[in-house]
Design brief:
Layout (H helix, E strand, L loop, with lengths): L5 H21 L1 E5 L4 E3 L11 E5 L9 E4 L2 E2 L12 E3 L11 E3 L8 E8 L3 E11 L1 E2 L2 E2 L3 H33 L1
Parallel strand pairs: 1-9
Antiparallel strand pairs: 2-7, 3-4, 3-8, 4-5, 6-7, 8-9, 10-11
Helix pairs in contact: 1-2
Length: 175
Amino acid sequence: MASLTLPSLCWALLFLFVVVFTAEAQNTITAESGQDVVLPCRVSPDKTIRAVKWSRADLGDNYVLLYRDEQLDPENQDPSFRKRVDLQDRQMNNGNVSLVLKNVTTADGGSYNCKIFNRGERINTVSLTVSGQTGGLTVAPVGLIAGLSVPAVLLVAAVGFVCYRRHKQQNRDFN
């Protein structure tokens, strides 16, 4: 078996970093206060969807949106989302159960779960970061920065450690 050279190992780990960073970024939506946003969620178009529930952990028993029996169910909908949310396509064509959130505020930032009820349940998580104006100062999308920084730092540290160990081993072999 051919051994990896130090540069090829570093390039492979850098490629892995880019893949992880891109995958994390795809589940993060960034918006400015006042905008309408779409939080994506899809299921295979050949699946029969009985219900869709969008929720956030900080809402307790309340939810962002519940759609079942071909209508919205407002019974336990959190009051802050009433008349501001809908499905992008209530017919759920092509498995599209994406959430439309209108007139977002910084309070809307957080992690949203899309739970699809069919023969098996499927959960998709989307993070929303909202920046806006507060007293003339722009609020930075801290969630996005923190959410992407932690995996990035860990991966860079791992790459650096592996490259260092590999380089040290090669130097030991030459002595």
